[in-house]
From TrEMBL:
<keyword id="KW-0393">Immunoglobulin domain</keyword>
<keyword id="KW-0418">Kinase</keyword>
<dbReference type="InterPro" id="IPR011009">
    <property type="entry name" value="Kinase-like_dom_sf"/>
</dbReference>
<dbReference type="InterPro" id="IPR004166">
    <property type="entry name" value="a-kinase_dom"/>
</dbReference>
<dbReference type="GO" id="GO:0016323">
    <property type="term" value="C:basolateral plasma membrane"/>
</dbReference>
<dbReference type="Pfam" id="PF02816">
    <property type="entry name" value="Alpha_kinase"/>
</dbReference>
<dbReference type="GO" id="GO:0005524">
    <property type="term" value="F:ATP binding"/>
</dbReference>
<keyword id="KW-0723">Serine/threonine-protein kinase</keyword>
<keyword id="KW-1015">Disulfide bond</keyword>
<feature type="region of interest" description="Disordered">
    <location>
        <begin position="163"/>
        <end position="200"/>
    </location>
</feature>
<comment type="similarity">
    <text>Belongs to the protein kinase superfamily. Alpha-type protein kinase family. ALPK subfamily.</text>
</comment>
<protein>
    <recommendedName>
        <fullName>Alpha-protein kinase 2</fullName>
        <ecNumber>2.7.11.1</ecNumber>
    </recommendedName>
</protein>
<comment type="function">
    <text>Protein kinase that recognizes phosphorylation sites in which the surrounding peptides have an alpha-helical conformation. Regulates cardiac development and cardiomyocyte differentiation by negatively regulating Wnt/beta-catenin signaling.</text>
</comment>
<keyword id="KW-0472">Membrane</keyword>
<keyword id="KW-1003">Cell membrane</keyword>
<feature type="compositionally biased region" description="Polar residues">
    <location>
        <begin position="169"/>
        <end position="181"/>
    </location>
</feature>
<keyword id="KW-0677">Repeat</keyword>
């Protein structure tokens, strides 16, 4: 678990660095959230041989998003840090074609720690997150773009989501009628409960 925690936070930190490189030069964008590094320490003589070490954040600790994505959109959207965290989530989502989302954005001011990452079931470029895929779905449904999303030229998720729904409904019109499907697909295979993936 400790190794995964380091891997997740430091992966999110790498995305945050790329985000900063794109956002900071934009006129009027200002300071960009930073995910602080976390280090793994091996202590062979100790009962608990692995520990993590990171910078101490002093000041008011704020959760800019909770794992399901609701808080960042509704409770923290008025603060500059909250809006920029929300934009960071949108930026990562777009950069990874909806395959990865940084969640649990929290910290002091623009310095963030203890973040999570949600990925699609198969992961993204060999990386699997530590949060449920449902966080990606909820973010896509709940995210409200702000001025920082606009500055970065991010596409509205509402428009993208509706395009996907239209494409799906067009595809379904081209499918054979339901009686053909019933004959071709065994009943057990059509049961949606069979497609629930386990979370680790």
């Amino acid at each position: 678990f400790v190794i995964q925690e380091c891997c997740v936070q430091n992966t999110a930190r790498e995305y945050a660095k790329i985000y900063a490189a794109e956002a900071e030069p934009l006129e009027g964008f200002g300071e960009v959230p930073e995910i602080i590094p976390i280090f793994l320490v091996h202590r062979p003589a100790n009962n608990i041989p692995y520990a993590t070490v990171e910078e101490e954040l002093v000041g008011e600790f704020v959760k800019y998003s909770v794992r399901d994505g609701k808080e960042v959109n509704f409770l923290r959207r008025d603060s500059e840090a909250g809006q920029k965290c929300c934009t960071f989530q949108h930026w990562v989502y777009e950069k990874t074609n909806g395959s990865l989302l940084v969640t649990d954005l929290q910290g002091v001011g623009m310095k963030l720690t203890d973040v999570g990452i949600a990925t699609l079931a198969k992961g993204y470029k060999g990386f699997k997150g530590n949060c449920s895929i449902s966080f990606i779905e909820q973010f896509r449904a709940l995210h409200q773009c702000n001025k920082y999303c606009e500055m970065l030229g991010l596409q509205s998720l509402r428009a993208t989501h509706q395009k996907q729904r239209k494409a799906t409904s067009l595809k379904s019109k081209n499918l054979p009628n339901s009686s053909t499907i019933k004959k071709a697909v065994p009943k057990k295979a059509r049961d949606p409960r069979g497609f629930i993936s386990s979370e680790h």
